[in-house]
Design a protein that fits this description.
Blueprint (H helix, E strand, L loop, with lengths): L16 H18 L13 E6 L5 H12 L3 E6 L11 H9 L5 E6 L4 H6 L5 E7 L5 H15 L6 E5 L6 H12 L3 E5 L15 E3 L2 H7 L2 E4 L15 H8 L3 H5 L6 E3 L12 H4 L6 H20 L3
Parallel strand pairs: 1-2, 1-3, 3-4, 5-6, 5-8, 6-7, 8-9
Helix pairs in contact: 1-5, 1-11, 2-11, 5-6, 5-11
The structure holds phosphoric acid mono(formamide)ester.
Length: 307
């Protein structure tokens, strides 16, 4: 049986192309399982997993919890709000107390880049990064690749444009690593203030013209403006951002080609995407959410084999 090269999933940067392929192939099998009348398998029976969320989440938290339950794991959930973190307890003390309850695996979201990497040096349990600040969101990139492959097949040579707030996006960085490791071509597009200066060193094209990006790509993965991470103004107003970088259905229809529209959520409707685009036949946004469960089942299952 094939296995991963790592006992944690901290970021896509650390994965080999074989790891990515193994996760995506395993996810395909789990997608078949969760579409059966009986959706549950005993693969992680007697494995206990804690979902430790220091930042808000809808999709990632529910998707991990459902993936764990479909695999028959025992699940506990921790949210920083309402916990003893509010009384000053440290990250390490919090996690060590959770582990003292005989927990085998930690799924963690944290606002500080590198928080799961720090933990991986201090504890024995497997760690899955569910988003660390502006750094990485590996399972989002894996489910994005899985969803693109369902539409397009092999991603080698495919053209993917990532459009929006690249500077504050962990989804962008994880997608760039994931797509490049599979041989895809990647373009980032947004206002120059929201594109990091180092980005071309990652082997991606850069554009500031959303119509050019749409003409170029097979897939447009559109990102949210992350106002909560912006301490200064990066553009004059949301109205102006929407005017220059927003995407509507007419723009997609006028391309006269097949284009796949993606968004990791949550969508700011009327800012980066109009509702008629987000809900159009071009969009696979809800397929991404559906595929998240199968991809996270694959990640948890494969990491559990490492122990
Ligand atoms: N895509 C994503 O990470 O969404 P949540 O913040 O709702 O988990």
């Amino acid at each position: 049986m094939q296995s991963l090269s790592t006992k944690h999933l901290l970021g896509i940067k650390d994965l080999t192309p074989n790891d990515i392929q193994l996760i995506l192939e395993t996810a395909k099998e789990f997608k078949e399982v969760i579409n059966r009348p009986i959706k549950k398998v005993p693969s992680l029976r007697d494995v206990t997993i804690a979902n430790v969320f220091f930042e808000n989440s809808t999709r990632t938290k529910l998707s991990f919890e459902l993936a764990q339950k479909r695999l028959s794991a025992d699940v506990i959930n921790f949210s920083a709000s309402g916990s003893s973190v509010k009384k000053g307890e440290t990250l390490l003390d919090t996690v060590n107390n959770i582990l003292a309850m005989k927990v085998d695996m930690i799924v963690m979201r944290h606002s500080s880049p590198g928080a799961p990497h720090f933990l991986s040096k201090k504890i024995e349990a497997n760690i899955v990064n569910a988003g660390d600040g502006t750094h990485e969101h590996p399972t989002q990139a894996l489910l994005d690749s899985f969803s693109m492959m369902e539409k397009l097949g092999d991603l080698a040579g495919r053209k993917i444009a990532i459009i929006g707030d690249i500077l504050h996006s962990r989804v962008a960085l994880s997608n760039i690593f994931c797509l490049k490791k599979q041989g895809a071509e990647v373009m980032v597009c947004g206002p120059s203030t929201l594109i990091p200066k180092f980005i071309s060193e990652l082997g991606v094209r850069v554009s500031h013209d959303v119509k050019e990006a749409l003409r170029w790509c097979d897939v447009a993965n559109v990102l949210r403006i992350q106002l909560e991470r912006q301490q200064i103004k990066y553009f004059p107003s949301l109205r102006e951002y929407s005017l220059y970088f927003g995407i509507n259905k007419r723009m997609l229809d006028e391309l006269n080609k097949e284009i796949v529209l993606m968004h990791p959520g949550p969508i700011n409707r009327g800012v980066e995407l109009t509702s008629d685009a987000a809900d159009s036949h071009h969009s696979i946004i809800l397929d991404q959410v559906e595929n998240g469960v199968a991809v996270r089942m694959a990640v948890l299952y494969l990491l559990a084999q490492q122990n």
